[in-house]
Amino acid sequence: MYFNVSELDQKLAEKIKEKNLPGVSVCIRGPEGVILEKGYGYADGNMTRLVDGDTIYGIASLSKSMTTLACAILATEGKLSFDDPVYKYFPNFEVPGNPKDSVTLRHLAMHTAGIPPMEPLEWSIAMNTSGRNSRWLREMRRTAINKMDNIHQIIDYIAEGRYPTLGGPGEYMSYSNEGYAILSYVVDMAAGVTLEEFLKERVFEPIGMNRTVIDYDCSEAKAISGGNITQLFGYDDDGKLYADDNWSILPPFRGCACVKSTAHDMARYYQCLSNNGIIDGRQAIPSKAVEILVGDEFPEQEKAFYCLGLNKRVKNGHVICEHSGGLHGVSSFGGFFKGENYGFSVLCNMSEEDVEDLGWMMYNMVMGRPLEEDHYWLHPTGTDFTQPEMLVGTYRCHEGIPVDIKVYIKDGKLMVADSVGEMTTKYCGETWFQAFRQEPVPAKRLRFWVRNGKAWGVTVYTRLYQRVDD
């Protein structure tokens, strides 16, 4: 199959420059082998070290599917079941208001355990990472109830129920890093070895991910890097770009966000999942484990559906499984076309930047579509929501410093405001909306949850904010 790689290369370079990203590495692998593997920009603040496909980056939440893959492999061996109640592994675990027996490993993996957005990951980073100073960090250290450096502190905090439980298990999806922290330790117990050892022996080595490691302080990643590891870029409180080597340390969130890897290795990982666990003609991962992650149990539709550590959606006839991630000095995106033997990865060394559009370009080339075609799966209906008064109110997320979304009616139109400013909305069916600061790119995706004629919550992308006004 012919691919216009030179056009993609040019468009990627233009987009990376437009977004002012310091360093980006990308890789596409398919049945043909490596289709594109390239670095753009620099790995250090002095702009002396170029990035390439073997530059080590953090991958943040791309780590999550590796944790669920470990669970899936163990499930194929009868060592655990995703239907196991969490309390089987942690007797003190509970989501207040829900029976302990009803919350399973599957609910943790799908972010449907009823756990509301909360602070432990942010506290863990602030209390265990040295060398940084910012308004955010000072506030997190001021509010932290402990160092959040072991799993039992997280479990105890969930059980305290400081914020209302979202609902019954399986009822609502709200992204929960805490759930994946717990799954990391479930792997330890079920496997009889640590998650770190299990991933190395059963995932990284079989797939040929020779420059990938899970460590909580980056010491092992630095040791295997041969110096080809990126610094971490961000903007300080005054808006000035800086680079440092202060990797986020968040000990109990190992399988949630602590893998370091390369674009080369991550494309191999996703290609292996795309090909039912086969890479280079070898069955590196049990095909049944891949089926557990993203198989026929989960719907195939245009709207993204969160499976076990990966979103799944359909675009132009292709079933796409993917995830994004972000931390200090980390912005990541990766995915694969299910059953087609194509894997894609984008790794960037800028803090919390959206790099999905770079991945979309890569998808589009393989699909034979215009490179800059978007992949938004929510579409305005061209009509107005008939009862906007049901949605008016203020909604809050407690993940880190509390964040509010205010919803109100202005000149007959439903409006949304956050700390950045006011947004217009477009109705997208049911109780879905897109919010725009400036068209045509949506700033937020919203889904309201209405009970007894009044919205009690709104999902903003993947976090469910709860109403705080009367």
Automatic annotation (TrEMBL):
UniProt xrefs under SUPFAM superfamilies: beta-lactamase/transpeptidase-like
Pfam families associated with the record: Beta-lactamase
Protein name (database record): CubicO group peptidase, beta-lactamase class C family
Domain of life per record: Bacteria
InterPro entries recorded: AmpC-like, Beta-lactam-related, Beta-lactam/transpept-like
Beta-lactamase-related domain: residues covered: 8-353
Organism ancestry: Bacteria, Bacillati, Bacillota, Clostridia, Lutisporales
